[in-house]
User: What shape does this take?
Amino acid sequence: MHLFLQTFFKLDELLKAFPVLLTEGLRNTLLIAGLAIVFGVVLGVLLAMLLLSHRRWVRLPARIYVDVFRGLPAIVTVSLVGLGLPSAGIRPFGRDPLGYAVLAIGLISAAYLAEIFRSGIQAVPSGQLSAARSLGMSYLTAMRVIVVPQGVRNVLPALAGQFIIDIKESALVYLLGLGLGQRELYFIAQERQAATYNSSALVAAGACYLMLTVPLTFLVNRLDLRLRTGGRKTNKPPTPPVAGTPAPAVMEV
Assistant: This one.
């Protein structure tokens, strides 16, 4: 038991790891996940619109993209984007690995968000689009003003859930060799574990991830419940009977 505690919960290692994790690591993890979700939302909406097209030649490229990036393991995508593109001479971010990290996580996120947005838009009654078209709106205007906002509202819990996934998948960008000041939570913890042969830094990084994901998971559950119940309180106490009225009969089973 003593060896177990010294390996995973060594106090001095935890005290050394937490300050760097909570400053540099936490900041960069949120930066990578936040930029990736913004990129994923923009590209995901575009892909969802293509997937909903009645023309096969419009749907096909979007379907191939979604199937490929959903089918590949995330670590393979991160390696292909972050290591493969620079090796092939394609360097949109120069030698800055942080840009490739955001791009890789964003491309993965967009594939999942495209299906999320597609299902949300399809859940909007078709009469909404017809009514907008009858008012003189073009198809694109009706989708942008009427249909898409309602579809997004339908999938808000799923969007929040995807952000949690992006936070966890940001740990994979350690493969790209982030520089000092760019390291995310897992990169810092993995470096310290390799230097000390002690896993306490990884436990500290896990605690930091839980600090992010557990409140977000709670928020997703509350948001999902609120949308499903329309904001009604489900545990409302029964209204007391008015004086002078007979009490309701109780059926015995």
About this structure: Residues 11-51 form the longest helix (41 residues). The CA atoms of residues 80 and 88 lie 10 Å apart.
